[in-house]
Write a structure and sequence with these properties.
heterodimer; A: 247 residues; alpha/beta; 6-stranded mixed sheet; 4-stranded antiparallel sheet; 9 helices; 37% helix; 27% strand; B: 232 residues; mainly alpha; MetI-like fold; binds adenosine-5'-diphosphate; binds magnesium ion; transmembrane (chain B); MetI-like (chain B); MetI-like_sf (chain B); membrane (chain B)
Chain lengths: 247, 232
């Protein structure tokens, strides 16, 4: 195993409530890690903590074996990661401008930006939208722009928080298919938060189930889904009633 | 009605004839108002952004005072500045009373709360998620600030226009702290008041048209900036 990020004894508290309590957790290079669990389990909080956007209350986060001081991740480190959330949260401006922003903020030259934006728009099938205002896109289009915006900086880890859950079913499966291909080609390490078993089953190769702020089970996705343990079975079996596993 | 038309005619006449006094008064009005709104923007914009994006103890009380400040009667502002600049007052040694600087100070006092409060309102509507997303895109604090200003350009320019409207319309404070001294602190609004009190309604009307034109020009420029190409 080759951990990019390791968590040791991480807790996150807010208003005297323990929201996360994770003795051990890691993200390995090259994996597509799923984080699944019921609403309010702490998935989004975990994602924000491991991507250094929110600081843990206690415990250590290591990047390539090196401890990063709490709340003090240097910008160079943060810039190795991208995050795409459920809402696309695009800026008022063209699609081109939105996709380019990560590179603009990193002071990349115009010529390189133009080339890369073209490339990523092409991959996500949104080249025809380049000059449109990003605020007037459909949900599916907006999410494609959001993902292209996250991928263009070629992140070491791509963090995703239910990026498809607001889309209607046909839009969702088309985008998921495209997205899976793009991630596999780019060989990007990805961490994917969802409460949806179908998405997790389709996309991820390792899975952590989190309930009440604790990782209750983790392992290769098919194994976890087929053999829930006593803490995860009630959550997973509910899903499996409606979604018979087939890979 | 006839009076109005006469006033308009007189205004055009004054402008075309190159009446030095009118030019000087108009120029001073423009200068004083632009400097006031510039300073109010330079202070009120960052301050409003700060108030809109942060939460701290006492913030709401502070906002309450700023909001009350939006309705601060200009004569009250004038009185305070007068007391501040009075010979025996705290800043009396600077002998600024009855100078254009005094008018600028009074105008800042009445426009700063407007710029600050309206900016704060705009920035308060930025969701935590959006702030998190911008940070996640790799923005430094300063870059975040620039992105947000660009995103909220429309609201920010509205705040500046509202502040400018207050400044250019204001007369009570300018009268009190400026003293309406010809060639020194006489601006359009104070001249209008003076001419009316002398019974020179035609001149007053003419000046009012010039004042309106100035306000219109500046506001038009700001509106143009505000509404510039919005891609669809
Ligand atoms: N800053 C905060 N203050 C108080 N409660 C919070 C805060 N952030 C998250 N929570 C609470 O922590 C729990 C987990 O939230 P979240 O990580 O968003 O869950 P999930 O993404 O799994 O649905 C929820 O009960 C939520 O209300
Ligand atoms: Mg969540």
């Amino acid at each position: 195993m080759n951990p990019l990020i390791q968590l040791k004894n991480i807790t996150f508290k807010a208003q005297n409530k323990t929201i996360l309590d994770i003795p051990e957790f890691q993200i390995n290079a090259g994996e597509f890690l799923g984080i699944m669990g019921p609403n309010g389990a702490g998935k989004s909080t975990l994602l924000k903590v491991v991507s250094f956007l929110e600081q843990q209350t206690s415990g250590e986060i290591l990047y390539l074996g090196q401890v990063i001081p709490i709340g003090n991740a240097p910008i160079e480190l943060r810039r190795k990661f991208s995050i795409a959330l459920q809402q696309s949260l695009l800026l008022d401006g063209t699609v081109f401008h939105n996709i380019a922003i990560g590179l603009t903020l990193r002071k990349i030259s115009k010529a390189v930006i133009n080339e890369k934006v073209e490339y990523w728009m092409e991959l996500f099938g949104i080249s025809h939208l380049a000059k449109k205002n990003a605020l007037y896109l459909s949900g599916g289009e907006a999410q494609r722009v959001n993902l292209a915006r996250a991928m263009i900086v070629e992140p070491e880890i791509l963090f995703l928080d239910e990026p498809f859950s607001a889309l209607d079913f046909p839009t969702k499966i088309k985008l998921m298919e495209d997205f899976k291909g793009i991630i596999e080609t780019a060989q990007t390490t990805a961490v994917y938060v969802s409460h949806d078993l179908m998405e997790i089953n389709y996309l991820t190769n390792r899975l952590a189930i989190i309930v009440n702020g604790e990782v209750k089970q983790s392992g290769p996705t098919p194994r976890v889904l087929e053999h829930p343990n006593s803490s995860t079975s009630s959550f997973l079996n509910e899903w499996k009633k409606f979604y018979p596993l087939a890979r | 009605m006839e009076l109005l038309i006469d006033g308009l005619k007189k205004a055009i006449e004054m402008i075309l004839s190159g009446d030095q006094e009118v030019y000087a008064i108009t120029w001073l009005t423009l200068k004083v108002c632009l400097i006031s709104i510039l300073i109010s923007t330079l202070i009120g914009l960052p301050f409003g952004i700060f108030l809109g994006l942060t939460r701290f103890k006492g913030r709401r009380i502070l906002l309450l005072f700023i909001n009350i400040g939006m309705g601060l009667p200009p004569v009250v502002a004038g009185l305070w500045i007068t007391m501040l600049l009075w010979r025996s007052g705290p800043l009396g040694d600077l002998s600024l009373l009855y100078s254009p600087t005094a008018i600028v100070m009074a105008q800042i006092l009445v426009s700063l709360p407007i710029v600050t409060s309206l900016t704060c309102t705009a920035f308060q509507q930025i969701s935590d998620k959006m702030l998190l997303q911008i940070k996640a895109l790799g923005a430094t604090k300063f870059q975040t600030f620039i992105i947000l200003i660009k995103q909220l350009k429309i609201a920010i320019l509205a705040a500046i226009m509202a502040g400018f409207g207050r400044v250019i319309a204001e007369v009570g404070a300018a009268m009190m702290v400026g003293g309406n001294i010809l060639g020194d602190t006489r601006i359009l609004t104070t001249t209008i008041v003076m001419e009316v009190s002398k019974g020179n309604f035609d001149i007053a009307l003419a000046l009012s048209f010039i004042l309106l034109s100035v306000a219109l020009l500046i506001t038009a420029a700001l509106t143009f900036l505000q509404q510039r190409k919005r891609i669809s």
